[in-house]
Design goal:
Blueprint: H1 10-20, E1 25-28, H2 34-43, E2 48-51, H3 55-62, H4 74-80, E3 85-88, E4 99-102, H5 117-127, E5 135-138, H6 146-156, E6 167-170, E7 189-193, H7 196-207, E8 213-215, H8 219-249, H9 254-261, H10 286-295, H11 301-311, H12 313-327, E9 336-340, H13 355-365, E10 369-373, E11 379-380, E12 391-392, H14 398-403, E13 406-409, H15 418-424, E14 427-430, E15 444-447
């Protein structure tokens, strides 16, 4: 028992449960962040409760089936056969949890403003069942001050006292779907409480399931650190994206330049250009800070400029495609364009914020006859701004490649036969340097 926690307090009782691994851990939101986290706590020996509003996900998990391919299927089967696991869409079940971890989306609104509705709704759901001795942690990426300024006022309406009756912390997710050299359990976990006791309990909790936990001074430091991580990537990717067309005009290959620069053992980290940003983090998270900064009278010009550069890349890809088609004496209107890769990164089925969606939209708007191939995404069901572009993946074979006026590479999945594309494509427009190993190709080749 901790000397700082009396035996009769809600804090000490929760501490005992965490140490004994009898505390029931509930994860709210079973997507790319929540499901791996649920698995981590299950593997650590805790009773786990998974909550999601999507009944299909709940049914799959209770049948022992996983809907996230990169996680494999064995863990879902193992959990479904255990009496320490339950997946539910019933909010009343949250009352059974000692720990509730919120892993809900934080998208941008129609005007680039933070959409906090998922956080506020899920916090209100927790407030309805909040009781003494519960720990609530937020993992969704958001602006500094969210945990203390947005979540706690909702929870405080219950009349319970934070830091005394219940406990609140922020611990940012650091998931990278498809990464082989790190997992949820091995990525260091930042933890910041809204008060010292909350921070201590949250650090203890995550330490039972994660190899390395890094406690920070408070929730605000943890919230800001997560934004800095993503802003760092956003700005550096924008730098190489800005250099790409400049160097191309000089006849210089940006990929060779980056590879040359990264031989320096200090002072440089390699970032690579692409067709635009994808995934939930980099295209969205920096603008949470941009929005919040205005409240304090600051204009984050560097971040906003990086966003402008990265958001312009799909348009650049379309212009390069038009130039390549012109070399063939072909207009974009009526041209058959095969887009290779729909996921936002290689070897995953994740299409969140994928630049391929905007590229496909622009191709259609310019009159192209568009199809796509992605071995991980058999159906593109549309998303937010792209609901009208429902498509199915077409097989990638010699006939498909030969029939296309242009093969436009957006995602460089490792299972794709690049040599076959090089042997049979009339025109390849490559946004990922995917064809570097098979050059020269028989048709025309353009980098974009």
């Amino acid at each position: 028992m901790s000397e700082s926690m009396d035996a009769a307090t809600p804090a000490s009782q929760l501490e005992e449960k965490i140490q004994a691994r009898t505390a029931t851990v509930c994860v709210v939101g079973l997507g790319y962040v929540g499901l791996p986290l649920l698995r981590a706590f299950f593997k650590a020996g805790f009773p786990v409760l998974g909550f999601d509003v999507d009944q299909e996900k709940i049914d799959l998990l209770n049948r022992g089936e996983s809907y996230l391919k990169h996680l494999g299927a064995d863990f879902a089967k193992e959990m479904s056969q255990s009496d320490k696991f339950l997946a539910t869409a019933d909010p009343a079940k949250l009352a059974d949890a000692d720990v509730i971890i919120l892993c809900v989306p934080t998208p941008l609104g129609n005007h680039g403003e933070p959409d906090m509705s998922y956080i506020t709704r899920s916090t209100s759901m927790v407030a309805k069942v909040l009781r003494k001795g519960q720990l609530i942690t937020l993992e969704s990426t958001t602006y500094p001050g969210t945990t203390r300024g947005d979540c706690i006022p909702i929870l405080a309406e219950t009349g319970l006292k934070v830091g005394q009756d219940y406990f609140v912390a922020y611990s940012p997710e650091r998931e990278d779907p498809g990464r082989k050299n790190h997992s949820t359990q091995t990525i260091p976990k930042l933890v910041g409480g809204v008060d010292p006791i909350s921070g201590k309990l949250a650090t203890m909790l995550y330490g039972a399931a994660i190899a390395e936990v890094v406690p920070v001074e408070n929730a605000e430091v943890a919230e800001a650190a997560k934004l800095l991580e993503n802003i760092y990537r956003c700005v550096n990717i924008a730098l190489v994206n800005e250099l790409k067309p400049v160097l191309a005009s000089m006849g210089i290959d940006i990929w060779k330049v980056v590879d040359a620069a990264k031989t320096k053992p200090f002072g440089f980290q390699a970032f690579y250009p692409g067709p635009g940003l994808g995934g939930h983090c980099i295209p969205i998270d920096p603008f949470y800070l941009t929005w919040k900064a205005r409240e304090f009278g600051h204009h984050t010009r560097f971040i906003e400029l990086a966003g402008e550069v990265n958001n312009s890349m799909p348009g650049y890809v379309i212009r390069r495609t038009m130039e390549g088609l012109n070399e063939l004496g072909k207009a974009m209107r009526g041209a058959k364009v095969l887009v290779v890769g729909l996921a936002y990164k290689p070897d995953v089925d994740d299409v969140r914020e994928t630049p391929a969606a905007e590229i496909i939209k622009l191709l259609f708007e310019n009159g192209a006859d568009v199809s796509y191939h992605d071995p991980h995404v058999p159906l593109f069901a549309g998303m937010r701004k792209y609901m009208e572009y429902r498509m199915q993946s077409t097989p990638l074979d010699k006939d498909t490649i030969k029939s296309a006026d242009c093969v436009l590479i957006v995602t460089d999945h490792s299972t794709i036969d690049w040599q076959m594309i090089g042997d049979h494509a009339r025109l390849v427009v490559d946004t990922r340097n995917a064809m570097a190993s098979v050059l020269p190709i028989k048709g025309k080749y353009w980098q974009a």
